[in-house]
Structure formats: C-alpha cells, structure tokens
Amino acid sequence: MNELRKHIEEVTPLTDEEFDYIKTFFTEKKVKRHQYLLQHGDKVSSEYWIIKGIFRAFYIDKEGKEHIVQFALENWWLSDYNAFFNEKESDINIVCMEDAEVLCLTLSGREKIASELHKMEHFFRMKLTKGYSAQQRRIISLLSNNPKKRYEEFASLYPNIMQKIPKKYIAEYLGVSRETLSRLYSNH
C-alpha cells in the first residue's frame, strides 16, 4: 500500500489518517499471466491500479479480429471505463501479460472517498484527464501519422514497454503488420 500512497501523493499530499481511510476502499488481487481481469460481457465492478505487471486491453470485432485499446503497467489505472462509470457490461477484454498484482476499487468506493475527501476528487480528476488526453493523442496519431511516425512516438513515450511486450502486440497496437514492425524496429 505504500506504493499507492506515493502514487496519490504525486498529485496531492495526504495525512496518515487520510491514507489509512483511503486504503480501506482497496482490495489486493494477484493475477496470473494469461488470466483475464475483464472479459467481454462481464459486469464491470472495479477499476484497477497496477502495482506490478503488464496488461493488454482489447476489443474483438464482429469478424473476430482483436484491436488493442491500450497496454497498462505499473502505476497505471485500468478498466473498461465506459462500462465502469455506466455500470454496464464490458465491451473490452483485459488480460494479464505477466504475473501481476493490482488494487481493486469499486465505483461506490471511489465515489465515497471522492465525496468525503476533496483531495481524492482532485486526484481522480487529474488521472482521468491525463488518461483522456493520452487516448486522444493516440487516436489522432492513428488517423494522421504513417507507421514509422506511430512507431517512433510509441518508442519515445513507452521505452520500457518495448522490451516487455511481444512484437505482434505492438504491431497490432500501432495498426501495422508484424513484418512492417520488424522493418521499423531494425531501422530504429
């Protein structure tokens, strides 16, 4: 839980009493490689803060093709947020790519600590804002950049992910073939 406190305090300071209260809303969960946190159609009851590990969030279209929405690793928050905030079934799948540990926070827990502690409302707003901005940047990159530029942006933004994730998933995330990624990777 000390990691969680450090994470929150990157945005807002906490007293010991505040953190003792906040941590009562989180439950720890260990997740094995290839295990799902969420599958399409699941009721989304939690969002997850990643203590350790890497996850892949993806959507499967009607033809059965997988589309990676995001990767998430240590210190990142993850869920199917559309389903989480609207209390509906998941449209995406979230799978663990290496053994991991997460902290789970329910929507009711999140709402309670945000309403009782202005600091946490501010914290959650800042995290959502950064996440929304990152998703928007990704969409614009997919729409306007060539594969080489998308690869360079990804490598620059997430250098620590490059060695941890199989290249086939990076290619899928970037919207290029595995062969194209190999060419880009060897030229970089």
TL;DR?
By secondary structure, this protein is an alpha+beta fold. The protein is 48% helix and 23% strand. It has a domain at 2-117: Jelly Rolls, CATH 2.60.120.
Describe this structure in words.
The protein is of the alpha+beta class. The protein has a domain at 2-117: Jelly Rolls (Sandwich), CATH 2.60.120.10. The chain contains 9 helices and 8 strands. The chain has helices spanning 2-9, 16-22, 81-86, 107-116, 118-144, 147-157, 159-162, 167-174, 178-187; strands spanning 26-31, 36-38, 46-52, 54-60, 66-73, 77-78, 93-96, 100-106. A 4-stranded antiparallel sheet has the order 1-8-3-6. Strands 2-7-4-5 form a 4-stranded antiparallel sheet, covered by helices on one side. Strand 4 and strand 5 (66-73) form a beta hairpin. Helix 4 crosses helix 5 (118-144) and helix 8 (167-174) packs across helix 9. The chain is globular and about 55 Å long.
Strand order of the largest sheet: 1-8-3-6
| Order of helical and strand elements | HHEEEEEEHEEHHHHHH
Between the first and last Cα atoms, what is the distance in angstroms?
A: 39 Å
What is the architecture of the domain at 2-117 at the second tier of CATH? Sandwich
Gyration radius (Cα, Å) is: 17 Å
CATH topology of the domain at 2-117: Jelly Rolls
Question: What is the number of beta strands?
Answer: 8
**Broad structural category:** alpha+beta
Instruction: Pick out the low-confidence regions.
Output: none
Strand proportion, as a percent range, falls in 15-25%
Q: Could you give a short account of the major beta sheet?
A: 4 strands, antiparallel
CATH level-1 class of the domain at 2-117: Mainly Beta
- Identify the overall geometry: globular
Could you give me the name of the CATH homologous superfamily of the domain at 2-117? Jelly Rolls
Instruction: Kindly report the average pLDDT value.
Output: 93
Helix content bin: 40-55%
Q: Count of helical segments?
A: 9
